[in-house]
Amino acid sequence: MSTRLIYFAWVRERIGKPQEDVELPAGIETVADLLRWLKSRGEEYEHALQYPDVIRVAINQEHVEHREKISGAREIALFPPMTGG
Amino acid sequence: MPGAVVPTVRIQAEDFDVAAETARMTQGRADIGAVVTFSGLCRDEAGRLAALELEHYPGMAEAEIGRIAAEAVRRWPLQGLTAIHRHGRIAPGENIVLVVAASTHRQAAFEAANFLMDFLKSRAPFWKKEHHTDGSEGGWVDAKEADDEAASRWKQAVPKRN
């Protein structure tokens, strides 16, 4: 099952695309696992996810912590801390 | 217990009219005693800023502000609650965000509007990028720790429901 990854703001700019569909390899169970795996996919990902602790994540359009399990996620969004309002 | 208030949440590129949004909430009613409106505007940073560009996460922006508004309705005895957030390019002097909260008495309206803004700033998926008057791209605005602290103070506060 493929998972849609969506990127916003400087995460989007550094990775160089607004979204992509990926096949997650076995063993990627949590958000933290996903960030670690993504970071290894090339220098643009390394640049975007250099400091994983600051990256905010939403699964199916709801905020989650990095320890959250990602099984069943259709849509996972990665973005910097929000600056609306 | 009054009937459940259904908050109005809109995410839009176009401007909003504060007076019209207030009138929409109060017209034809005689039970509302207090309306608090908060408008957030784009400032020019002493002439340095040409515009803000607001990126958002369509779908989640509505959903998240809806969740925050639902929590406000659960916490305070409100008679109406509206939140409007703009996206796209916004020039100094223009509106960015509007919150309108109505209640029987002022305290609930003030607190609910304040609560909504605090959470909107730290949890609604919007990101501001600056464009400078000298033509340069100013980069993404950094999130402020003070905004996270403002949101966290509501964890302790237990509002009175009367």
From TrEMBL, chain A:
Report the Pfam families cross-referenced here: ThiS
Task: Note the SUPFAM superfamilies from the entry.
Answer: MoaD/ThiS (SSF54285)
Give the Gene3D superfamilies listed for this entry: 3.10.20.30
InterPro entries assigned to the protein according to its UniProt record, in alphabetical order: Beta-grasp_dom_sf (IPR012675), Mopterin_synth/thiamin_S_b (IPR016155), ThiS/MoaD-like (IPR003749)
Which domain of life does this protein belong to?
Bacteria
Q: Which protein are we looking at?
A: Molybdopterin synthase sulfur carrier subunit
From TrEMBL, chain B:
InterPro entries for the chain: MoaE_sf, Mopterin_biosynth_MoaE
Q: Which reaction does it catalyse?
A: 2 [molybdopterin-synthase sulfur-carrier protein]-C-terminal-Gly-aminoethanethioate + cyclic pyranopterin phosphate + H2O = molybdopterin + 2 [molybdopterin-synthase sulfur-carrier protein]-C-terminal Gly-Gly + 2 H(+)
Which UniProt keyword terms apply here?
A: Molybdenum cofactor biosynthesis, Transferase
Q: What class of enzyme is it?
A: transferase
Enzyme Commission number(s) from the entry: 2.8.1.12
Region: Disordered, residue numbers:
131-162
CDD domains reported in the protein's UniProt record: MoaE
Q: Name one GO molecular function term.
A: molybdopterin synthase activity
Superkingdom per UniProt: Bacteria
One Pfam family cited in the UniProt record for this chain: MoaE
* Keyword Transferase included in the entry's annotation: yes
Q: Does the keyword Transferase apply?
A: yes
Instruction: Give the pathway.
Output: Cofactor biosynthesis; molybdopterin biosynthesis
Family assignment from sequence similarity? Belongs to the MoaE family.
**What this chain does, per the record?**
Converts molybdopterin precursor Z into molybdopterin. This requires the incorporation of two sulfur atoms into precursor Z to generate a dithiolene group. The sulfur is provided by MoaD.
Q: How does it assemble?
A: Heterotetramer of 2 MoaD subunits and 2 MoaE subunits. Also stable as homodimer. The enzyme changes between these two forms during catalysis.
- For this entry, the protein name equals Molybdopterin synthase catalytic subunit
Which organism's genome codes for this protein? Mesorhizobium escarrei
